[in-house]
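Bit of a strange request maybe. I'm writing a small parser for structure token strings and I need a real example to test against, not something I typed by hand. Could someone generate the tokens for this chain?
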Amino acid sequence: MAQKKEFDPNATENSESILVRLILQRIIRRWWLFAIIGAVAAAGGFIYAFFQKPVYESYLSFALDEGGSEGGGGEALNLAAQFGISLGGGGGDIFTGDNILEIMQSRRLVEGVLLSVDTFNNRPMTLIEFYLQQGNKADEKKTADSIHFYPGENPGQFSYGKKDLLYQTYLDFRYYHIIARRPDKRLNIYELMVSSEDEKFSKIFTDKLIDVTNRFYTELRSKKSRETLVILEKRVPEMKVKLDQTIANKAAARDANLNPAFAIADVPLQKAESNTQVYGAAYAEMFKNLELARFQYLRSIPLMQIIDPADYPMKKTKPGKIKTAIVFAVIVSFIAVCIFVAINIFRLKRRTLSL
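Reply from user aminoacidic:
Good idea to test on real output. This should exercise your parser:
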């Protein structure tokens, strides 16, 4: 019976091809070991998939009309500039385009939604409290520190550990549970998807997030126009009071100087008439610009129209048992082979150095 040829470190034909061939022979001889490892890994993958909870993904799409430019007509711009308010009219607006996607996933809005309250299991709970009770990653820290988020709490009075848990939960949602995108850059249509292990939670979180995003985005887009409108609404009544006062002064001056003996007696009447004309012209201009500011404010308000709301049933995702078993078996077997090859190379090299 022919004896199998072993690797000789002193042989003249000590090449890489011989080394590779030898390692392949050893792998083939131990095929049963890798088969056992693959079978165990497959069983582990099957059990893992069996106990995995399904993930529900909500889907919401909306169209966004950015609203008119906050520039407006030249008269409104000039008047706003006199009050130290800029309405734009030249450069671009930083709150347009895909920036709404970043706003939607911002820490301020996501944490606000997490701290909002809704009904779960027939009792009011904050969304973050319900999420942590489902056995998520951050739940270990919550349990260890006995941290709870009760309805009506003031976030400004949270302890450092509580703020840290809130922040870690935000990061979890930001990178793993929220997808906000604009599928087609040519269209102003956006999509929002939220995934979780509870179907009701996914819907509630989606609805609340789109609601706070709409309100916050509207406030940002119309803030400058609203500030100008508030100033004008305050100044116009003040100007009207001054105009009414000059008209009254003019009438009083005329009554007091029905038969003036000297020309100087007409001076108060002439001053009153001059003031009436000035305040009248100023009031007319301000009233016109007030109407322009109101129109500009309405134009600056964006319109977010929901196309497809988040609704039941939702997309349900759960890893297949057979597929997961095969993936586990392939990956673990590959790692086992790599480790086996590395050990054999190390042993052969060490044997070469020792001789």
